Amino acid sequence: MIRSIEMVTLLQTLIAAEQGSFHKAGMLLGIPASTVSRRVRSLENQLGVRLFDRHRHGIRPTAASNAFLKPIRRILDELNTVLINAKTIARGKAGALHIGLYVSPSTGQLRTVLHEYKNAFPNVDVQYVEGERSLLMERLNAGSIDVAIVVGHFRSGMHDIVPLWSEKILVAMAATHSLADKATLTWDDLRTEHILLGRDPGPELRDHLLSRLNASGDLPAIRHSHIGRDFVLSLLDIESDVTLLYEADTGAQHPGVIYREVVDDEGPSLVPYFACWITSNDNPALQHFLDLLRQHKGPQRQPHSIRPR
């Protein structure tokens, strides 16, 4: 029975009940009243019940009509909501977006982009995934995140990429450290230091450091710990170490910790940011996010050549 009842019949029956007249329903729909009356009569025959009492001034819903039409109205309202939501998601104004990060968005361009995206698309459920770079690539390939923001040397491989902007590499240390008196540092200043690096982006920073010190001379003592950047920063005044980090990681305050730029022959040492995603990902929310990233795209200095890992 359900398959034989047309949606248009249900809609016209609901409108007739609301208007209290086949004539008024026909005028509202722009069709003859007889068409509405005929469809309602056909529905009554299919159901085996009388939905309306007819009288000279119009129609009056029966008890059976009220019991039948109330849930039908609710179902059609829910269907309309589903259709509206589907259109909204298709336009990228709703839905979900999963962003993979291993650099903090505590300050800088990335934070600005995330703010602007959330303001422009408040109904998109943005989920953030933090993890080591290799883990983010695995999740990207598996489709569990839509886009990964990566820093430094990057081979595109199977991914689409868009270069974004460059940010400074900084050295963090305790305010009492012997290098704290210098306004800026050079890479050579780090040759005799003890450097504590955590998990990602620790390996990329290590490779960058060693590539800048590959000439003859002393190399710093580099110690790796599987801890996050905040943990590393909290240990600097205890361990008397220094650490490397990206400019975006400096938004959070750490008592007793100061930051110094590392400069080279061209000025501040910079690293490029990239966004990478899978070409076949057709999530409309992702496309809007990529468009916003492109709007913030800035000049990049080519990263210093480093040894592939």
From TrEMBL:
This is HTH lysR-type domain-containing protein. Belongs to the LysR transcriptional regulatory family. Keywords: DNA-binding, Transcription, Transcription regulation. It holds the Pfam family HTH_1. The keyword Electron transport does not apply. NodD regulates the expression of the nodABCFE genes which encode other nodulation proteins. NodD is also a negative regulator of its own expression. Binds flavonoids as inducers. It comes from Afipia broomeae ATCC 49717. It comes from the Bacteria. The lineage of its organism: Bacteria, Pseudomonadati, Pseudomonadota, Alphaproteobacteria, Hyphomicrobiales. Residues 16-62 form the HTH lysR-type domain. One of its GO terms (cellular component) is protein-DNA complex. InterPro entries: LysR_HTH_N (IPR000847), LysR_subst-bd (IPR005119), WH-like_DNA-bd_sf (IPR036388), WH_DNA-bd_sf (IPR036390).
